[in-house]
Amino acid sequence: MELENRDSAADRCLPEEKYxxxxxxxxxxxxxxxxxxxxxxxxxxxxxxxxxxxxTMLSIREKxxxxxxxxxxxxxxxxxxxxxxxxxxxxIMVNGLDPVxxxxxxxxxxxxxRFGSIQELENTAQHIAGMSDRTVNTASPIVDSxxxxxxxxxxVLPPAAPDGPILTIRKFSRDELTMRDLTxxxxxxxxxxxxxxxxVRARYNIFISGGTGAGKTTVLNALSEFIPSGxxxxxxxxxxxxxxxxxxxxxxxxxxxxxxDRKSAITIRDLxxxxxxxxxxxxxxxxxxxxxAIDMLQAMNTGHAGSLSTGHGNSPSDxxxxxxTMCLMGMENMPLAAVRQQIASALxxxxxxxxxQDGSRRVLSxxxxxxxxxxxIQLHELFCFKQTEIRGGKVYGTLVRTAEPxxxxxxMHAAGIADYG
Length: 421
What we know:
alpha/beta; 3 domains; 9-stranded mixed beta sheet; 6-stranded antiparallel beta sheet; 15 strands
């Protein structure tokens, strides 16, 4: 594998003393008061390598490795650059000066590479935060950010991280995954994909639940391809990561934490309220994790059918209870039964995803939300994942239709879809 080859090269080790020597010479050549093009930087690196090699032996491989690392450090994200360019790597985890960890093919493993100093790591973190106009420092040591391609980044600096800066990057695929791609990968069945496509076209309110890294955002992006082209969509996120490539009339809103330079916070609740005045046909909330849930549900209940959102939950029923808890955070005096009724009135379908023991991401359940009974939200499972076998460490199975009918068929019929119910 390409990454394995690169890592074995890294394991032969970038000669640290030579690298630092060349870097020092390179920095002495660069003026602080001017900007350099990429071509000029490459020329300066090559010139520095030639001068350095006159008194210190450098092999062809050492020259190549040192030149690449210096360019990446100056122009890109240092030792993380080639990991970000490798499509097989889905997550990058930096724990201070410990070796870097990655997730690749659903498995986490440790690499030999590590940052050379706390200052180098902090500079990389500051560079990433600045790319999305975020501020991270000792006064505001925790920030969610994103790279230019939408990859999600979480940064935690000391004093919140006493062992050194923490940097976690959740990478997004360079190519947008469609529902057809997810079906081909076995994430869900063709029958389930057709049902969800019809549900989006018919403007059902859909919630996607699952654990960290289960693929919630990927499925939400895939569902967006079935939103009719004439509709206006407003997305609301903590950090921009949704990639709704097929939606033309799109408004993107992003929250912001309060900063030490007195920029006030812009919360998800603020953005949901603002979105109602932007004439949306649908509202998509990237993830709800607090009292903003009540505003999202009220928006769905007040004429914005076809809205979508995601949240962290261990199961569909667990997600319903977590939503209720989040709503109570913002409506303390509202009875729990009324909160559950609000959820059941707003949401119509819940898609639950999970990661299986082989690391694969699957849709495990699609359920219809059918009101409340005895104060509890009623879920009718329409599709469930059936595991058939485990062979060679790989889990085999598929998402199958249950005997439960779709009870709320009005929207399907209104959209001219008569195959359900």
